[in-house]
Amino acid sequence: MAKKTNEHTPKLLVRQATPADVPALVELTGRVYTPEWGHSAEMLRSQQTHFPEGQFVVEYEGRLAGYCATFRIDEATALAPHTWMQITGGGMASRHKPDGNWLYGMEVVVHPDFRGMRIGQRLYQARKRLCTDLKLRGIVFGGRIPGLAKNFSRYGSAEAYVQAVVEGKRRDQTLSFQLGNEFELIGLLRGYVQGDYESLGYAAHLVWRNPRLLNQPDIPSIPSPQHLPDSVRVASVQYLQRRISSFEEFATQVEYFTNIAADYSADFVTFPELITLQLLSIENEELSPVDSIRTLSQYTPQVKELFSRLAVHYNINIIAGSHPTEMDAGEIHNVCYVCLRDGSIHERAKIHPTPSERTVWNIIGGNSAATVQTDCGPIGVMICYDAEFPEVARHLTDQGALILFVPFCTDVREGYLRVRYCSQARAIENQCYVVLSGNVGNLPGVNNFDIQYGQSCILTPSDFPFARDGIAADSTPNIETVLFADLRLENLARARNSGAVQNLKDRRFDLYETRWARKPDSGA
């Protein structure tokens, strides 16, 4: 039976640093740089005093996992040659200019215990959000080049080594990461930090230019309680079902695709409906369909822990397909676990089980369709057959959803096309994006899950700002693959406010309405 945990509680939090964090930050910087070279309490307090909005920490389960310091600076100073001590005022951020049109990144520190969790990436993202919120020109800083000293003899100069990294011929632990985060090299800074022997005192002079300054004016914004990113990258996994011998083997396959999506800087990755039926091949026992599903439900704690851990570790929001889950009242629901990169878990049950799910597996439908608030705005989940009911998508859109995720599982092409055509209709009538992810391959011996037909896709409204055929990305049927698409939220605003058709605006509220009854769920 599914046990309730601390649902919706973030494990990981990116927040503004406070004076109470200072002792822990002194310890953190001292551990990373040695106590002699770490930041003093005076430096940290000064940074917060000059520009509190620019000081961020990452907190994971109550511990500080990372920290970055930022201040505003004028363009002439930021882009001219300088050293770290000069431009930061000795680490005090005392050269902060309230009217400066660039952000200067003076420090990023990641606790050694939390490396591999993309803590640095999260801090860079926080800086970028701050930069766009303040409508500044961009971010500039001097970045370490830790591979320079040991490779200097091979390349002969710092310039040649850095050029090799920029061209992808050489990987540098820090510089390659920064280039991968959309920073542009504009030169080298000599004598930047005298004690940085690995970099021979050099730093890469890097900038990130605010893309929002290039936007056309007077584009209506999308109402939201939080600032929305300009573009959201989504990944859809077309997953091959194959026999496995252990839960660890399943976890390895899922982690592989999560890692791939994260390496391509996706904000979301979605897996197919009933992806976990693969687990029934472990025991390879002859079970009745109902017993199979109840056996599968015993994996619920492991499934939730796996996807939540991967979401935090790889800094990506995961739509974890769906998994048959036994509720507190003993009913079986087909549940999608939405695991966010802050560590929170959200559960969304399939509302409309298919006739086969009801009669063969005794699966019961859920009673609500609520959006999930993410760092990329509110999203909605419709599990397969749910996409064939326009009321569900409209209800989610009315709550503010901009992207709808549809994990699906279909056995033949006719079934797949029903989900596909209806999902395309949902994208058009709600002027939103719809992401489909399905299974392919076969699992002989698993009841009611013998064959699969899938063609995952990422769909858009049909209007001028979008792809010509309303398809942002499409897959070849019945092969294992991953799709990616960058979805511009601003294009939805354009379509909804000034498109050739304006479906959401033009509804006849005076003529018809849809009312959702308030029915309690049996508890997920």
TrEMBL record:
Q: Which SUPFAM superfamilies match?
A: Acyl-CoA N-acyltransferases (Nat), Carbon-nitrogen hydrolase
- Output the Gene Ontology terms for molecular function: acyltransferase activity, transferring groups other than amino-acyl groups
Specify whether Transcription is a keyword of the entry: no
Instruction: Give start and end of each N-acetyltransferase domain.
Output: 12-172
Q: Does the keyword Transferase apply?
A: yes
Keyword annotations of the record: Transferase
* Entry-linked InterPro entries: Acyl_CoA_acyltransferase, C-N_Hydrolase, C-N_Hydrolase_sf, GNAT_dom
The CN hydrolase domain extends over 232-489
Q: What is this protein called?
A: GNAT family N-acetyltransferase
Q: Which species is listed as the source?
A: Dyella tabacisoli
